[in-house]
Amino acid sequence: MSEIQEKVWAAIDKNRLKRLGMDMVNIPSPTGQEKDVAHFICDYYKERGLIPRIQEFETDRYNALGKLHGDGTGIEFLFCGHIDTSYSGKEPGLPDLPAYQPKAWSEKDESSGEEWIYGLGIYNMKGALACYIEAANAIQDAGIQLKGNVTIAAVGGEVEMGAVDQYQGPNYRGGGCGACYFATHGGAADMALIGEPSEMRVVLGHMGYVYHKITVQGTPAHTTYAHNAVNAILKMKKILDALERWAPKYRESHPYGNSNANVNLAAIEGGWPWRCSRTPVFCNLYMDTRLIPGQHPLEVKREIEEVIEEIKAGDPELKVDLEMYMSNPGSEIEEDEYIYGAIKRAHKTVHGKDPETVTEGWISDASHITRYGVPTLNYGPSGRTRSGKPGWDPDIGEHVNLEDLHQTTKVYASLMLDVCSKPKEEILPHIQKKTAQRRKSTVTL
Predict the structure, then answer these.
(1) What are 308's strand-pairing partners?
(2) What's the pLDDT tens digit per position in 402-423?
(3) Do 327 and 211 contact (CB within 8 A), yes or no?
(4) What pLDDT, on a 0 to 100 scale, did the predictor assign at position 444?
(5) Which of 48, 56, 383, 408 has the fewest CB neighbours in a 10 Å radius?
(6) Which 3 state secondary structure label does DSSP give 18?
(7) Which of 81, 327, 85, 378 is nearest to 206 (CA)?
(8) Category of 241 on φ-ψ map: left (φ > 0), alpha (ψ -120 to 50) or beta
(9) How distant is the alpha carbon of residue 170 from its chain centre?
(10) Under a CB-based contact definition with an 8 Å cutoff, are residues 116 and 179 in contact?
(11) C-alpha to C-alpha distances, 13 to 20, 130, 138, 384, 407, nearest whole angstrom
(12) In which band, very low, low, confident or very high, does the pLDDT at 439 lie, cut at 50, 70 and 90?
């Protein structure tokens, strides 16, 4: 560890880090309602000496951008993370547990002495945002002048959801819409990091997804004549059973790194619950299928069509419509990208060993940032659970270990020192070489 790193680490204020994370949790920000927390973050940037910029990516929805300026002789580095939360806390059927609500609290474990922070968003991913900002605080408080610029982009609209049917408007529009706007409105950088929950492991690649809606039509009839009608729910059962048989085959045939692409039969609706004296004339099934990087969503649609056609061949009464209503690609970068070597060095400086490198089935805003030419990986503090369950414990809800936040802040600060304390001439040749390789792999018409 260098003298400068030691100075910066000493400037990290663990209590300030904790307060910032909890303050952000205490501002509800479900998808579509990011305004208040975005303004809070911008005010915090200004208070701490970062140059703030509020960016409206949709009416009354905002990204909160903060910049730590270097002296102009280094590269452009980006920390990106989302401010919208996975839930609002009001969803029917959500576990009745405090950590699923936007209210933060902390608790010390008497046996281990470790402190844990709870509350909606602290896990995914306001904890990581607090780490970005505190790392920048420490750089400034230590009196370090970087050569490169560091941008912190706290973006809205990341959570995986897509507007469909009656579920319309900003509260149902996620899928990276804030990051996509940022990437196309000044969000250029030489490299980027996103702190999604990875348990301090490096995620070089993750999957994308495609959403489909399957509609089965029935015929109207009174209960008295139901035996002569086409019941859309019963017809949908045939499709459900077939898809349940298809899903393991799809999963097995689409391996990716240490995981496989999964299928989720996510939602179903049919009939008129206020009028049970009528047969259901419709039944809708909604499903999520994971995509490995480079996989086209139409490949999935055609596989589902084959499943449906096989059922229709034996059931002439079956009337089905298949609609793709949302998709996002996976993201992947190669191991020889500069950012990968830099995060490995930063992690090893803090933890004394190389980080584990994995692939993931979830998606992040790297799908959008990388598509616009910015090599992006994921490395975040969340994922270690108090119960010991790997990755996530639904019986607890969102929580993160305070020391994990502290250690990750050290890694982020070390990363900034690595990539932004060097003159651009030392890093740009590597970046330009990789850019040239990507161009060669692109077909030009």
Answers:
(1) none
(2) 999 999 999 999 999 999 999 9
(3) yes
(4) 46
(5) 56
(6) helix
(7) 378
(8) alpha
(9) 18
(10) no
(11) 11, 11, 8, 22, 12
(12) confident
